Amino acid sequence: MKISDLIKEAVTLLNSYGIAESLIEAELIVMKSLGMTRSELYVNFKNEIDTQTLDSVYSDLNRRYDREPWPYICGFKEFYGIDILMSPGVFIPRPETELLIDLTLDIFNSIDDNHRVNIADVCTGSGAIAIALASHLSNADIYAVDSSKLALQLAQRNIETHGLENHISILEGNLLDPLDMSIDILVSNPPYIPSKDIPGLEPEVLHEPIEALDGGADGLEIIRNLMLQASHKIRRPGNILIEFSPQQNEDICQIAKDILSPCIVKVENDLSGKNRVLVIGLT
Fold this sequence. Notes:
Shape: elongated
CATH superfamily of the largest domain: Vaccinia Virus protein VP39
């Protein structure tokens, strides 16, 4: 079988699975098995496929039939221009979360640099946020916190892959509990999906760890606890940035005012114009 024929067959199978971008995914699956770039794939369209490559392609197609997310299959996800290693059981970073990085960098650059800044990335998962920040900030101490041992193992691998061991410290525990120091900036993409909405999520999302998705009855349970802990762990002046669902806009702003006053609360929109990040300035 030629590469071109294999891609056509993969497209047909992926279409039958209900995969929307079947051509793109078919090419990615074949590229992965062949170890080729897209340009190399096109140049070699008429080449014959060996049995080992065929077996690898069909194995990956079976995983997509089960609606396993592509980042778990290929082993990485690009985030803020950085390749983040991925593995099943760890939350996959989303493009909209990159807004957290932009906003945190802006805040960092506005801080008086008379002391070294402490930044906590809570619910770090793969470590994507901490790594993106550390890649742009050489004069900050960054703490990547999670309660999942599996996630922290992957985060450690990612930190070492990018040579950031001296800039990021891994801490295991519930939210801010493991931190024994004051924090200047807290950034977090916590679980914020209401429990009742979990069963209706896309099949790919349901492959991800439920504990990284489920935010309790109203989706704000973990965020409330995070703010309560932050009231004792964040310096004043200090800043908190939390990703949330657009439908939670009014509720999350009120929670912040109730728990963290005196503070300045504002909401930043993502590229699609949806409310996405709560920015809290502690005064």
